[in-house]
Structures are given as C-alpha cells and as structure tokens.
C-alpha cells in the first residue's frame, strides 16, 4: 500500500461544527448512485490459536476506560485492545500496526479466501437484540443524502483514529449504521442466520455474538439492488466515519485513484426489523466542584434537591417528560435541574437552528449551562462522557473532584428529524445500542 502524508485535511478549525462540515460535506470520488455495501475479505481471529473469542474481542474503543485498558494489556495474549488502544496511544500506533502484521504472519489472524458480506447477530435468551450486515460501505458526501451524520465531531479523536488506521492499514472497528429497510436484504440476512454460524460465543456483556458469511454472488447482487435506493443514519462511529473520509481525501489529494480507501468497514442494521435502543450519554466535568456548578445553575434553571437514592432521582428525571431536565451529582447529594429561563435560553441558542434542535436536552446543556453559566470550553478534554451508566458517571466525577450531569435519552424521532432536516444534534448526544462486539471481523486496506 502506498505511503501518503499524515494529516487531517488542511484548513482552520475553530468549532466542532466547522470541522464536521469540512469532513462530512467534502465532495468524494466515490459518488455512486446510493447506499453501497460491498463484500470484502474479512480478517478474523483463529480460535484454534487464541482460544475463547470472548477473551480477545472487546467493546468499542471509546467505551474502554484507562483502568480497563491497562487491565486488558496486563493480561498479555492477543486481546484486541492491543490493536485499538495500544500501550502508548499516539506513538504506540506504530506498535499496533506491527502487532497486526505479526499476528497475520503467525496465524493469530487469518484472511478469508474470498470476498464476502457478513451477517452479525447479538442475542440474549429472550430475543435477537441486533442483526445486520457487515460490509465495506461506499463513502459519500453528506450532500448526496446517502449516509447521514447526526452528530458533530472534534478534530482530536479524528486525528487519533487516523494515526491508527494509517499505521494499521486497516479498518479495525466497524461503524454502526441504521436504515429503514424491510426488503430483500432483510430477508437474505434472516435466511442466512438460519444456518450454523461461522463463529459463536457468549461475552461478558450478557449477549451471544454470532457471525455468518455470504459469498453467493446472486445473494450479494440482490442485497446491492435493495440497498441502492436507500439512505443510512450513522448511529455510532461518527469519528471513525470522519476518519474514513479524511483518509479517502488524503489518498486522492496525493494523486492516487480509486482504491480501498473509498470504502470503510460498517455494520448496517435494518431498524424496521431490529429497532436499536437509544440511551443517553452523560457528562463529567473534571475538577469543577458540584457546589460551584449548582450555585451558577440556579441563575438560569429551577433547582430541586433530591435526598433519595439514585434510582429515585432517575425516576424524577424521567418524569420531566418533554421539558429539558438534568440531574447533577458528584458530591454528597443529587439535584434536579428543570425549567430553563426562556429569556436566557433564547439569548444563547444559535438563531439559525430549527425549533426542534433548540429544544434538545443536549443543546440546552451545551449552550446554556456548559458554555454559558459554567464557562467550560468546547473540547474533548474539558467535558468527559460516559455512555448509558449514570452510576459510572457519578463515580468518575467523584474520582476527579468534578461534577456529573445525568441526562435523559433523546427520542429517536427527534434524532431522525434533525438529521433529515440537514442538521446535527450536539456531539455525544446519543448512545445507540447494542453496539457490535469489536475484533470479530476486520478489513485490511491491502489484503493481498
């Protein structure tokens, strides 16, 4: 694979919105007619070498905190964390690339002999929680209306993943796309899952993960025909999709023609058959003491002390209904914030946003509280995030001497409406799930 310069596409960036517009909105050479999911030669762990696949696969990289990363690295072996979060992030990505190629040479990882689409399933004892197609998605500019982002991204994580992809010369983790289908592709996915799986194992997340392979050219052509007129929403993996686009732009800017960089690894789930779960992403403000946060919040919102337990406080948060509401914690008690001051809210909200966007809890939080009365800068270091788990957010806040802000999940209808109207919800607003297990199928950019 040719070597090219290592930079995110050039140009000044001051906000996540501007950076997102450049990455997602840039024209791309792969300007096909619609949604494309191409077969590829998958790379998989060999159970005969690594043993239990649950012991080497992981959650997505951004759900693994430092303590868990250190624990997994200390255990040795072939855990996937050695590729996605090596011992020295940044400079350690060369180590990750070398590890990947060594594992290929040693047979720890094997490359399937022919291109395929893969059916991936996550299920518990009651039902299939997620089932979809793993393939190489054709990269599209947002203006084509084929792949719709619904969140903004920051340059830092994109540069981080770009450094990793450049050294690994691979797509290591699929992004998570959803679409409204119910057609021929959905039937083929379900028919494929009636056979014995290529791999199957229970993991620590309480789910059984299974993978099947589709190599029949007729079935692949039927899937392609069904998807061609559809569009997909990025449910999870905005920074990785932005990285795909940055890598694509880099190669074409360097004079290379069409190639594997015009696609990226993706899991495409038919939301009409397997509706995703939408959870909240909570905020942690490290070093910002809860009593200071609380006093400043009183100037713009109603504050109600909640002396009970966390479950009782979460019930009160959920009862807020359509009103913007937040739960503050990290110190000794919990407080419910509701009813933002209309005049203060109108003064800080971007005037060019739709009324639906301005009502989003995360928009109110970002503009009225975080940037407004709390004066916290907009970057990924000043505001940490915790997916789904309010107790984990509170624990992290206490460890850092900071404050946790617990949110209700956004409604899927609001997310789809905002994205369909050409807007994006504030970054880290949604936690779609269940998220796919990482390390089950990889995609090399130079598989030969």
TrEMBL record:
One Pfam family recorded for the sequence: DUF1015
Domain of life: Bacteria
InterPro entries xrefs: UCP033563
Xref: PANTHER family: DUF1015 DOMAIN-CONTAINING PROTEIN (PTHR36454:SF1), LMO2823 PROTEIN (PTHR36454)
Protein name: DUF1015 family protein
Species the sequence originates in: Actinomadura gamaensis
Biological classification of the source: Bacteria, Bacillati, Actinomycetota, Actinomycetes, Streptosporangiales
């Amino acid at each position: 694979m040719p070597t090219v310069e290592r930079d995110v596409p050039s140009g000044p960036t001051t906000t996540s919105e501007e950076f997102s517009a450049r990455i997602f909105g840039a024209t791309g050479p792969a300007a096909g007619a619609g949604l494309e999911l191409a077969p590829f030669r998958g790379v998989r762990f060999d159970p005969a070498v690594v043993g239990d696949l649950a012991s080497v696969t992981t959650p997505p990289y951004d759900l693994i905190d430092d303590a868990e990363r250190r624990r997994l690295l200390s255990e040795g072996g072939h855990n996937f964390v050695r590729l996605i979060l090596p011992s020295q992030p940044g400079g350690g990505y060369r180590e990750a690339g070398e590890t990947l190629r060594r594992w290929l040479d040693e047979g720890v990882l094997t490359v399937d002999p022919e291109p395929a689409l893969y059916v991936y399933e996550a299920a518990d004892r009651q039902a299939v929680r997620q089932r979809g197609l793993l393939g190489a998605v054709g990269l599209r500019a947002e203006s084509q209306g084929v792949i719709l982002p619904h969140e903004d991204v920051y340059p830092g994580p994109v540069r981080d993943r770009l450094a990793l992809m450049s050294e690994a010369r691979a797509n290591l983790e699929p992004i998570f796309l959803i679409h409204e289908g119910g057609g021929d592709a959905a039937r083929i996915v379900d028919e494929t899952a009636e056979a014995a799986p290529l791999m199957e194992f229970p993991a620590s997340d309480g789910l059984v993960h299974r993978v099947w392979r589709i190599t029949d050219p007729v079935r692949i052509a039927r899937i392609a025909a069904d998807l061609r007129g559809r569009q997909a929403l990025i449910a999870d993996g905005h920074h990785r999709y932005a990285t795909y686009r940055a890598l694509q732009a880099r190669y074409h800017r360097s004079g290379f023609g069409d190639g594997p960089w015009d696609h990226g690894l993706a899991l495409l789930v038919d939301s009409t058959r397997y509706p995703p779960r939408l959870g909240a992403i909570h905020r942690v403000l490290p070093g910002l003491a809860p009593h200071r946060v609380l006093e400043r919040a009183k100037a713009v919102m109603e504050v109600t002390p909640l002396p009970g337990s966390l479950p009782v406080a979460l019930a009160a948060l959920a009862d807020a209904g359509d009103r913007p509401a937040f739960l503050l914690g990290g110190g000794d008690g919990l407080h419910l914030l509701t009813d933002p001051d209309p005049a203060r809210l109108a003064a800080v909200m971007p005037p060019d946003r739709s009324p639906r966007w301005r009502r989003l809890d995360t928009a109110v939080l970002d503009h009225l509280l975080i940037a407004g009365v709390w004066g916290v800068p907009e970057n990924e270091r000043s505001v940490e995030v915790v997916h789904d788990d309010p107790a984990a957010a509170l624990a992290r806040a206490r460890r850092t001497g900071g404050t946790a802000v617990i949110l209700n999940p956004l409604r899927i209808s609001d997310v789809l409406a905002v994205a369909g109207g050409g807007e994006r919800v504030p970054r880290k607003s949604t936690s779609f799930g269940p998220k796919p297990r990482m390390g089950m199928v990889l995609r090399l950019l130079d598989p030969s």
